[in-house]
Design goal:
This protein is 2% helix and 39% strand. It is mainly β and 581 residues long. Among the domains are: 2-141, Immunoglobulin-like (Sandwich); 144-184 and 476-580, Jelly Rolls, CATH 2.60.120; 187-283, Thrombin, subunit H. A six-stranded antiparallel sheet has the order 12-11-41-46-43-44, with no helix packed on it. Strands 10, 13, 42, 45 and 47 form a five-stranded antiparallel sheet that branches. It is elongated and about 95 Å long.
């Protein structure tokens, strides 16, 4: 990280300074010895200087002692130096005050005047006392947590005490153990109900419906869910929201409910059928189609107030319908059947899919481009509106129950045993992704090429990076906040999280451990899969530079730790630390 110390001129014969920052904790300095994990700098690697040259001195080590409160600096001796001066400041831009002058052969200094609860920046300059640098100033921060919450109970959490934070700021001393064991009750926020479909309008706001006939909403990305009141409670097979207000749900026995206020109230509508309704696709707040058992297709042009039957031309169950406009839709189902309309459903015509496998998912992104997926890993696609369908190689024989295409390039197929396959090239190749679950996935919903939700048997999963990592937004987590002082605009070259932790029992085979990193004080999170803890304290480092890459990001740093899967162990933390360079 480089910070410019402005407003001071340097003469040609003066030396350039190098500094490292040491962060003392918000409570006390006790145990801060672990802050010695500093990286050396690369300026002037030969450590050669003459009295008439301006070459910086690289500091190779900074160590803040947790027992004495001293700060120890070291560097390689500078050949030909007429003298060394150590400067100190409490903010990155100074002013810097000389705290000692040393002989030119000096290679280290211990600052015994450092105060508790302070953050310091050091310059070490080769030259006569009183010289001051105007060159770029190198800074390194080693950050212990300054706050946070243990919410392994999943009920809102308990704030860490000063003693808790101190325990996690130094290794080899006192540790911190979570209040509650990680539990298999990942879906306790849905009262243990199995979600069947989801519909999301943003990273934070989604609805899910369950096999128990309930509909739930989250407005915080799945951390908490609120049950909504519906007039009927069938098994809901499908649903859709086109915005934060207008939504529909369809289910067993022909039930349809509609909301125009985000689910504050739901109203039952007459569908005109008692057949199970499996899917719904809406192209506006007024125009929707529904597909279901026995080839049923229904349409509304008034937001669901009234529904009219259309003739599909098949008696096969139609498990999915996908519409791209008020005229153009496809539906797929049993026996590989695909039917399509280009006139709003006045007529539906059969298309040849090229497979007899059941097609559970259909997803279209234009009037010409569609995919369908189903049993035995079958995936077929069309680029001409369905005149011809071509098989693609998925790489699995598992049944796909869900298919979602966000664009002509980006699609996801998911299903039995928690499989998720994705393509970023329109299906030329499909690659497996790690869902972290062996439960069936019933639906995938994406609102961008990187942000998707997947729901299934006892699981809700989220990805914010296109499926590189999927994680469960469990209500159980441990979260740490950091409060560094960072100069605006300072570049970050490295950001590393160090954890020393263990588990009170061996994690289950289904366990997945994540750290979620936020660069904006928790508004959005980036998940990173890390190694599961063992029953012995062990260290692991996690590169987080992809998230924490600017001074503003460092100032908004928060880290969340969570474990998914069937578990009954507690976590113990010996050290939580972020090193910024």
């Amino acid at each position: 990280m480089s910070i410019h110390v402005a407003g001071r001129r340097i003469r040609r014969w003066q030396a350039v300074a190098v500094c490292l920052a040491v962060l003392f904790g918000a409570v006390s300095l006790i145990g801060w010895g672990v802050l010695a994990a500093w990286q050396g700098f690369t300026e002037n690697p030969n450590n050669s200087i003459t009295a008439a040259s301006a070459v910086p001195i690289p500091i190779t080590s900074v160590h803040a002692s947790g027992t004495s409160g001293n700060v120890q600096l070291s560097w390689s001796a500078v050949t030909g130096s007429p003298g060394i001066t150590v400067y100190r400041a409490t903010v990155p831009t100074g002013p810097f005050t000389a705290i000692t002058s040393l002989v030119g052969t000096a290679a280290g200094y211990t600052d015994t005047t450092a105060a508790y609860n302070s953050q310091y920046y050091y310059e070490v300059i080769s030259g006569a006392a009183g010289w001051t640098s105007s060159a770029d100033l190198d800074m390194a921060l080693s950050l212990p947590p300054t706050g946070g919450t243990d919410d392994t109970a999943g009920t809102g959490g308990t704030a860490f005490t000063a003693g808790n934070l101190t325990a996690m700021s130094v290794s080899g001393g006192t540790t911190y153990t979570t209040t509650t064991a990680w539990s298999s009750a990942t879906m306790t926020q849905l009262s243990g109900q199995e979600p069947d479909w989801s519909s999301c309008v943003s990273a934070s706001e989604c609805w899910v419906a369950t096999y128990s006939g309930d509909i739930w909403i989250t407005t915080n990305g799945g951390e908490t869910w609120t049950e909504q009141t519906v007039p009927v409670t069938p098994l809901w097979y499908g649903g859709e929201f086109v915005n934060a207000s207008d939504g529909w749900a369809v289910g067993a026995g022909g039930d349809i409910v509609v909301t125009t206020n985000g689910g504050t109230t739901w109203t039952q509508k007459t569908s005109g059928t008692t057949q199970d309704l499996y899917a719904i696709s809406c192209v506006s707040t007024t125009q929707c189609w529904v597909s279901g058992a026995a080839g049923v297709i229904l349409v509304t042009a008034n937001g669901g107030t009234t529904w009219a039957a259309q003739t599909s031309g098949t008696t096969q169950p139609l498990y999915e319908v996908s519409c791209v406009s008020a005229t153009t839709c496809w539906a797929g189902g049993g026996g590989g059947v695909i039917v399509a309309t280009t006139n709003g459903g006045t007529t539906w015509k059969a298309q040849t899919s090229g497979t007899t496998q059941i097609l559970y998912g259909v997803s279209c992104v234009s009037a010409t481009q569609c995919w369908a997926a189903g049993a035995a890993g079958a995936i077929v696609t069309t680029a001409n509106g369905g005149t011809t369908w071509t098989a693609q190689t998925s790489g699995t024989t598992a049944t796909f129950y869900a298919l979602e295409c966000y664009s002509a390039a980006d699609c996801w197929a998911a299903g039995a045993g928690g499989v998720i396959y994705a393509t970023t090239n329109g299906g030329t190749t499909w690659a497996a992704q790690t869902s972290g679950t062996t439960d069936n996935i019933w639906q995938v919903e994406c609102y961008s090429a990187t942000n998707c939700w997947a729901v299934g048997a006892n699981i809700v999963l989220v990805t914010t990076n296109g499926g590189i990592t999927w994680y469960s937004p469990s209500t159980q987590y441990v979260q740490w906040t950091f409060s560094p002082t960072v100069a605006a605009g300072a570049p970050v070259t490295s950001a590393v999280l160090t954890l020393i932790d263990d588990a009170s029992a061996t994690p289950s085979a289904a366990s997945v451990t994540y750290v979620l990193v936020s660069a904006n004080s928790g508004s959005t999170w980036t998940p990173i899969v890390i190694a599961n803890a063992t029953t012995t304290l062990a260290t692991q480092t996690v590169a987080i530079s992809s998230v924490i890459s600017t001074a503003a990001a460092v100032s908004g740093l928060e880290v969340r730790y969570l474990v998914t899967g069937s578990n009954s162990f507690k976590s113990t933390f010996d050290l939580v630390q972020v090193a910024i360079n």
